[in-house]
Amino acid sequence: MSPAPAMTLSRRSSLSNISDYSINLDALGPSSKDDSSLLPLPQENSHAIDVIHSEDIDGPTDFTQNMEYWMNAKLPNVVKPTKLDGERKSDLEEYVDSDESLSQGQDVTPRQGTEEGQVGQGAQDHDVDQSMMSDASFGNANEGGISFLSGIPEDEASLASPQTVERSLPATHPSFRRQPTVKDYDDTPIKPRESRSASSSAIGETLRSPENSLKMNVQREQPEETSYGGKNTMEALEEALEKLRTEISDVKSQSEAELTRLRQTHELQLNDARTSHDRELKSVETTWKGRLSQSKAEHESKMSIFQSQKDSQAQKITLLETKLNTATTAQNTKANQIASLEKQLSARSSELQESKNDVSSLERELDTLAETSRVEREELEEDRRELEDKYHRLQDDHRNLSSGQTTVHNRIEDLETQVELLKSRHEMEISCLKAKSDEATAKACEDFESEKTDFELKLDALKEERDALLAELALLESNHAGKQEDTEREAQISALQKERDTLGRQYVDAQAQCSRINTELNTVRQRHVKEAQTVQTSDTIIHLKSSNEALRTTITELQSAVDAAKISNDILRASLCDHQSIISTSRTELDLARQETESTRAEIRSLRADFEAVNLAVDKRVSEMIKTREAEWMKRFETIRSEKGIMGKVLMREWGSKEVGGGDDPQGYRYKFVRK
After folding, report:
1. pLDDT single digits (tens) 7-51
2. pLDDT tens column, 50-107
3. Cα dist. 663→39, 659, 669, 674 in Å?
4. Is 160 in contact with 11 (CB distance < 8 Å)?
5. Are 356 and 448 in contact (CB under 8 A)?
6. Mean per-residue pLDDT for 558-571?
7. How crowded is residue 621: how many other Cβ atoms within 10 Å of its Cβ?
8. Residue 59 backbone class (left: φ over 0; alpha: ψ -120 to 50; beta: rest)
9. Where are the domains of the chain?
10. Among candidates 408, 417, 407, 406, which has minimal Cα distance to 451?
């Protein structure tokens, strides 16, 4: 594959008085000779297409026209991207066989003499290595994101004019490569950047090898070499490249074989280790699962026992708290009832005082007896209605009282009877006032005094009774906590003691029976000896033998009965010991429950105290915050009000100055100080 003929384009300005501008696109990329000047380029989007539009370029008119020309100029031939191997080969041919393209280039001659010729001559003075290394550097820079500059030559000095010149180039200088424009990039399908980057990097590595470096140095020392020398160099480079590829493939195959062998060995070792590890893991898991299940079962049994004990203790505590709450409620109810009775007694005493005042008024108004009797009748009628209302209220209170409060009920009944007596007395007084006012007045005074004394005595009695009830309630509260449990435990203990006494009596009876059987056995033996000594006949001996056998069986039965009684006695003793241990355990649990109850109550009291302290602190803080905020707002309000006053004064002063001011007289408002 031979490179396409290159074409050199030149342009001059259409205006003679405007300077010519040219652009060196090689300066945009990194230098091939100095690696220290390489700058990091931003990563380019792999899916983007390198496009430069003319409206994005700004500058002088002639510079802009020059740029638009080079962007819009369409080259005669456009190289399409190929595969990786073909591209490497074509790039290598373009780098090495650059002298061959000189003979195929078109001859161009400048239309104007000096400027274009000097520029073209400057472009021809570059070396072959500069062209090749510049192209390689742009291939590497293509990976950093400047892909559209890869096909542009290193020196653009010869392209300063858009006009086409025709002159022959010397055969000793390297030819210029085809330069695709931006428009060509828009029209040409673009190959993925990975292949281009790979080909550029491969060419760069090939050119940087020692053989190629030596050949490049030789080529740099002989810039006047012909195209034949370039072909030989290309063939040598191709042979070196093929040799290098062969060595790389051999090393790659050996590395792959070694890697496969190592991978298989490692997999075998890994499988063996994994199998042994799985066996050990399964055995350990089985062992620990058994231990875990056993410990879990033991833990569950213990937890069930503890939970049952906890539930029983909680039920006991709940029962005690319920009883305590009931007693507290009853105490509060009694206190409320006593307070209501005290209020009623105070009301009655006030009523008595009013009645006494009424009697004194009757004494002072004896002459107006009829009027006084009418007034007294009305007052007594009102008192009667009030007493009836109070009587009905007392009846309602009496209905709400519990059946156990017999003492308070009796007091209420006494009060009701007293109310009835008062009603009858008032009626009698009303009837007697019409006939005997003096006697009625005296009698009323005496009755009121006596009733007052009675009420005071009853009030004292009720207070004493209240104190007694409070003391009794305190005593009940102190003894109520363990009374119920103590009674139940004492009942159990008494039952167990009764059972123990019964077992003891049975044991004593069994021992007495054993001693009685032993005495009977001794008596029978003595009798048998006496009868054996006195009776010598055969019939008597036979009879005695039979009786002896019967006695032996009886003795055996009695002995077995004694043994059974002993066994039962031992069993009863063991059960008695068990019951005693249960009783002691129950007492210990009862003490613990009481201690827990006390500790719980202490915690509740401490929590209540903490809650109250926290509430007080929060209330204090909130009040302080509110006070601070109110003070701040008041301060702001005062500041705003003062500013408003100042603004009003200034406004009125300005208004007066505009309306009336300007003279020597004191300033005033128009409506008041205007001069007519």
Report:
1. 444 444 444 444 455 555 555 544 444 444 444 444 444 444 455
2. 555 555 555 555 666 666 667 776 655 544 444 444 445 455 555 545 444 444 444 4
3. 80, 11, 13, 12
4. yes
5. yes
6. 74
7. 10
8. left
9. 25-29+41-225, 258-495, 496-630
10. 417
Q: Count the Cβ atoms, other than its own, within 10 Å of residue 167.
A: 13
- Per DSSP (E only), the strands in 111-259 are 166
- Of 161, 133, 292, 303, which Cα lies nearest the Cα of 219? 133
- Output the CA–CA distances (angstroms, integers) from residue 234 to 57, 228, 295, in the order listed: 41, 10, 85
Q: Can you spell out the DSSP letters for 95-145?
A: HHTTTHHHHHSPPEE-SSSHHHHHHHHHHHT--HHHHHHHHHHHHHHHHHT
Residue with structure tokens 């300007």?
Answer: 662
Backbone Cα Rg of the chain: 66
Q: How far is CA 89 from CA 1, 93, 140, 255, 568, in A?
A: 9, 6, 17, 27, 116
Question: What contacts 592, CB < 8 A, 6 or more positions away?
Answer: 313
Structure tokens at 341: 């009775």
Integer Cα distance of 8 and 174 in angstroms: 13
pTM higher than the cut 0.85 = no
As a whole number of angstroms, the distance between CA 617 and CA 16 comes to 95
Cα dihedral value 398, 400, 403, 406, nearest 10? -30
Percent of the chain with pLDDT over 70: 37
Residues 6 and 105: beta-carbon distance below 8 Å: yes
- Classify residue 166 by its DSSP letter: E
